[in-house]
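Handout, section B. The chain below has 409 residues.
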Amino acid sequence: MNNQAIVSRVNFQAIMEKAEAYREDMARFLSDLVKLPSTSCHEKEVVLRIKAEMEKVGFDEVVIDPLGNILGRVGSGKHVIAMDAHIDTVDVGDRSAWTKDPFSGEIDENYVYGRGTTDQEGGMASMVYAGKIIKDLGLEGDYTLWVTGTVMEEDCDGLCWQYIVRESKLRPEFVVITEPTNLNIYRGHRGRMEIKVYVKGLSAHGSAPERGDNAIFKMAKILNELEELHGRLKNDDFLGKGSLTVSQIFSNSPSQCAVADECWISIDRRLTWGETKDSAINEILNLPSAKKFGAEVTMYRYEDPAYTGLVYPTDKYYPTWKISEDHPVVTGAVSVFKNLFHKDALVDKWTFSTNGVSIMGMENIPCIGFGPGNEVNAHAPNESVEKNHLVAAAAFYAALPLNYVENAK
């Protein structure tokens, strides 16, 4: 038995220097991605641009799956690791709120500007160049790294990874989610679900409403009870409180001169630790007015076709997830951070939801988050990301796999 200490091949200083050398390459690549609008279900052109860059920098294999996700492979060792960026974006909203063209991909000395720079194509740019750094510095080891650019996340978090795990049969030992973390290490977030509440009434002429049964009035009583329910939802010391907001209200009647015979609402329900789809639905079903009026409470279902034409239906339920602060994937990431940046990492959580809802929430594959940009810029006008963040993230992604396998038991 060899008792000699293992000499690590992870030269953190060399990795940082190489990442810095690719600062402008990453910025230009990200700029190209921003110039290709890629809202959910319309990602084809940006996927092809990523494919070209992966091939250019020397990935061992690049494939596009039937859902339209792009997967690039570095290495072929036994430890399978993945790093993920969703490459769809939300739309731009009110263009008058933008001081720069959201699709210009403008670059200055310190920033890249435009829709998707933070959420979340900046992570993709850093991951691709992490692959190049691994190749340049000979950081391959007994691991296979898959860099994934995933689709439809903004419309349906985690659908892409449901497909990758269940259909493509790729099941990594852990996944790094490169959503924006402001260069902190994240280990979870609340889940969410989209709920429909429906009540039936009886129509009558508006001149004699007493002959009918107004569904909107019924829903008004349910709405008051939902507001009260929000205030007493569960709390978790790490993830925070569950929440509930009514996001949409609809009604139907034969005319504007008639009693409404249908009313339904949409609820955005954020789920903290210990809350599930069943518990959330039952809380609403058990409201006094919901019982009295026979409300129907269901989950919405996602059935939109990908840009490839494939439909892969799923319920709009996105489970809560977290891993412990002493999990080996977390402690390994903290160690890499300290060695690269010579300071302690902040270990925290996202406010919003990510593909971790399926990777960890459904499939129990450990996840951590580390990404360029600040989540406060996600979905906001004047989105941008610092070049320094792209460099730091690329260094982190390049150092992590070999550090992990060298320390694997």
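Note. The mean pLDDT is 96. Compare this with the example in section A.
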